[in-house]
Design a protein that fits this description.
The protein is of the alpha+beta class and 203 residues long. The protein has 5 helices and 5 strands. Helix content is 45%, strand content 15%. The N and C termini lie far apart (112 Å).
């Protein structure tokens, strides 16, 4: 059973003969051009004079005309290559081309829309950027919350207790004994100091 076939330097008529053989043998073939090309893509074939003989998807009045003078040098490049270019329909595409050789008497170019092809990549990059920004915002919010909850508020409580005691509220205390780590230890020391000062004043 023939599963696949490959021949170096295969000519167009060899491909046609192979297609007929596969179909006659009941094998599976596929109408590539009818199936469609890559994202917003195209296939263009030109002869040795640069006259377009096939263009899919078709553009009115293109077949039978010469390819743009900006790309005629690609017809006889020494080897296949790629480039970014704006096609006749105004779409920026990544284009791969096969120049004319002794084995391949036709110029073949195929391309796909850069924006359409990389849309998912760009969307993923944007999503990743937004996630990084969101993570940074959450980290900043957490830092602010922790700072207020465990640093600023305890310190304000200590300062408030001292100010209220100085204003004559002799029962004012921080009430933070055993809480908030090192700041709690400072607050406890302040409470003990205020207790001691109150005892001495009572004596």
């Amino acid at each position: 059973r023939l599963v696949a076939y490959y021949e170096p330097h295969m000519n167009a008529w060899d491909c046609l003969a192979g297609l007929c053989l596969v179909r006659e043998a009941g094998g599976r073939t596929e109408e590539f051009l009818e199936r469609g090309t890559l994202a917003d893509g195209f296939i263009s074939i030109a002869d040795g004079d640069g006259i377009v003989v096939v263009r899919t998807p078709p553009i009115p009045n293109v077949v039978g005309t010469k390819i743009s003078k900006d790309y005629t040098h690609l017809l006889h490049e020494p080897q296949p290559g790629t480039l970014e270019a704006t096609s006749r329909d105004g779409v920026l595409r990544v284009i791969g081309y096969q120049p004319i050789t002794k084995e391949t008497p036709l110029y073949i170019a195929s391309g796909f829309s850069k924006d359409a092809a990389f849309e998912s990549v760009n969307r993923g990059t944007l999503t990743a950027g937004l996630l990084i920004l969101l993570s940074g915002m959450l980290a900043a919010a957490a830092a602010i919350f922790i700072g207020n909850r465990f640093i600023v508020q305890p310190i304000n409580s200590v300062v408030s207790a001292i100010e209220r005691w100085s204003a004559g509220e002799t029962a004012a205390r921080t009430g933070m004994r055993g809480q908030h780590g090192e700041i709690g230890q400072v607050a406890a020391a302040v409470d003990e100091l205020l207790d001691e000062l109150e005892r001495r004043r009572a004596e």
